[in-house]
Amino acid sequence: MTKCIMVQGTCSNAGKSLLCTALCRIFRQQGYRVAPFKAQNMALNSFITADGGEMGRAQVVQAEAAGIAPDVRMNPILLKPTSDTGSQVIVLGEVRGDRTAREYWGDKKALLPVVAQAYDSLAAEHDLIVIEGAGSPAEINLKQDDIVNMGLAKLVDAPVLLVGDIDRGGVFASLYGTVKLLEADEQARIRGLIINKFRGDVAILRPGLAQLEALTGKPVLGVVPYERFDIDDEDSLSARLGHSARGAAVRIAVVRLPRLSNFTDFSALSRVPGAGVYYADRPAQLADADLLIVPGTKSTMADLKWLRESGMEAQILKQHAAGTPVLGICGGYQMLGRTVSDPVNTEGGGQLRGLGLLPVDTVFCPRKTTAQAQGTVGALSGAFATLAGAAVTGYEIHMGETTRDPAAQPFAALRRADGTAVADGCQAGDVCGTYLHGVFDAPGVAQALVQALAAHKGVSLTTAGAADDRQAQYDRLADTVRRSLDMEQIMRIVEGNR
């Protein structure tokens, strides 16, 4: 029978995703065929699998750490927020439509068989499943229909590790309160407590750890230190989304849209020596950037309005006129065009004027394009000229169809996984747009862009040393967690021995 272990947290961003990633790597190193699983994920960072299914990036990262290909069964339900009260619901990689929170909660029980079937089919192919919870299991107003925390743990008979974030403060109260708000049978599922993101001497914590064990009756399995790992983050709570690029020779400003999605597109740029990637939500923060990027968004129309009302549009246009290159990806590409139209009410209907930097027009349609693709960048000009001929790979996730003027040049010639040839994006001098997420991930592309920006600025820069060392990062994460936790006890829990 396939073994499993589940990581739940006292709150969102307690470190569940990263700990599950570490456990996937550790178990893989021990020879297990291991797979990640999260029944329901809410995030705007998503990924497209080889067969065109959409899933959350957290489980993609965990699959990479486990040494297997991402599969939508690892994240059968993905919620992509479209407003403060609603989300697009994606089930087994396919869009089911938009739902308000109330509508989704009313329909959620009907999705339990989908979750169970996805889990069972994964379990049939692997030795061990590492399960990630969502938010907190002690949301007592939502527990009745839970399918992602204790409800799922009961369904698959999973032992649970409960993690608390000491960096936020109040970790002892959080762990104790979470345990005590659960029913007796749910408390029994918790086999150990973990304190995450600790800075300092663990000896200082020990009296508190002993008291916590006495109060909860649960062993503390370890204290994980606060460390930074260059591993893709799940959502907009990420510490990456800061405003500073101090000391960088080349400053790359990403507009921090209210509904920013897939900011992992820029991880490769941030690894290039001499480049500083920062996120800006006020016009003044764009002023000394060497490249402006308008990124992807879940709601192009709403974020285009924000761009206009916040003064960011005027600042982008001002800097472009002064010679600063501009790049748009996915929804950002749509915004750089002349018009964005929504005749089928995908995002509330109507038509908006774009920034007018590219000779393209976008019309939203009911069908979402989701595909992996690879190809070659075209004969670009201006600051982007050195990217010409570069091999690129990535994936598309968009509701709109964008039409270029007949004389306009595409950004790249792509071929999707199904064999379809696509003339992607558009270029007009120092402005480019593309639908390709992950466009900087292919070897040499990020370095070439940073070199081009340095030359455009008149700065001499060596980008040697930039590398995608994700596998090394997974190993470093695994080493850190292995040293910090009682892995012998965790293995006994996995094997069914207390």
End-to-end Cα distance: 18 Å
Poorly predicted runs of 5 or more residues: none
If you compute it from the alpha carbons, what radius of gyration comes out, rounded to the nearest whole angstrom? 23 Å
Structural class: alpha/beta
Brief account:
29% of the residues lie in helices and 29% in strands. The chain starts with a strand and ends with a helix. The protein has a six-stranded parallel sheet, with helices on both faces. A six-stranded mixed sheet has the order 15-13-16-18-26-25.
Describe, in plain words, how this protein is organized in 3D:
By secondary structure, this protein is an alpha/beta fold. Helices cover 29% and strands 29% of the residues. The chain is built from 15 helices and 26 strands. The strands form 6 sheets. A 6-stranded parallel beta sheet has the order 2-9-1-10-11-12, sandwiched between helices. The chain has a 6-stranded mixed beta sheet with strand order 15-13-16-18-26-25. A hairpin with a 2-residue loop joins strand 25 and strand 26 (431-434). The longest helix has 15 residues, at 470-484. It is globular.
